[in-house]
Amino acid sequence: MSELVLNRSAYIHNLTKICAKAGGKDRVILVLKDNAYGHGAALVGREAASYGIKFCAVKNEVEARELEPFFEHILILSHIPNGGESERFIYSVNDISLIAKFKKGARVHIAVDTLMHRNGVSVGEVRAACESALAHGLQICGAFTHFRSAEELSSDYFVQRRNFAAAKAVVREICGDGLVFHSHNSAATERFGELADEYVRVGIAAYGYAQFDDSLGLKRVASLWAHKVSGRVLKKGQCAGYGAKFCASEDMQIAVYDLGYGDGLLRYTGEGELKTAGGQRLLGKMSMDSFCCEDAGDRICVFDDARVWADFFGTISYDVLTKLSPSISRRFE
Ligand SMILES: *Cc1c(COP(=O)(O)O)cnc(C)c1O
Question: What is the pLDDT of residue 249?
């Protein structure tokens, strides 16, 4: 059976580096959305919690419930207010016009749009948003923003920091002290030092993928393994798989392994050279539940660096990782 194997010491190493940069375990909001970037939310969440992380962020309430046993604080980033908010979770206010739809008493963080123009209230609306949230009986516990290009050398980051500083001042004036502010994702955390009045909100760095300069010295956590379903000699001139895309120019030993695009791998079409971590070439079109490849024995490491697949398919490591099906078994070793 295919499996995703997680390296515990690499994961703890990354958490340690992130916490050191943030100024302590209490300063880290660990982003565990999308099944912990494909690594397995409950598995990774339990590990992070036993390491000492108390705060995580997720996409929605389904994800929040899965992680509820492990974390003291869970922020739901993409929440759509519905009047049924739980007192166990903290919800992002992503749109000023939806504040009245929250259940009274719900705990919220105000998302501030400082330039990205995705979610959040504009800096000019922060006062009105806070007043309206308080008038509606919401508990404002914090505020945050998201950088649109923290991994690029441009002035955007600095513009957004300045805008967020203005927003924080307004929130403090209205709500007082003791609030949780956060803005730095992985790239921004790598790039800049500890912030006196902020938490960091880090996702991909914990899995070992540097986004800026790898100043944290991160280690990749996951490797994806597949198992051999069958093997054969492909004779010179014979072609393997759908559409006869790959034809042998001489007799060769090939094997079929038990992972395909139905398991969330990006679909290799047989064009171009894509190799496993061990250097075996994938051969022909990938099937739904299997791929064909130069024979590497019973077990093959498909990748231990998602960037190899991301580069091949013209995408990013996040995309490769989050697509991995929850049905693939996962374990720490
Ligand atoms: C996904 C996400 C993050 C984490 O980003 P990384 O680049 O993985 O560190 C932080 N904040 C928000 C709002 C996000 O959606």
Answer: 98
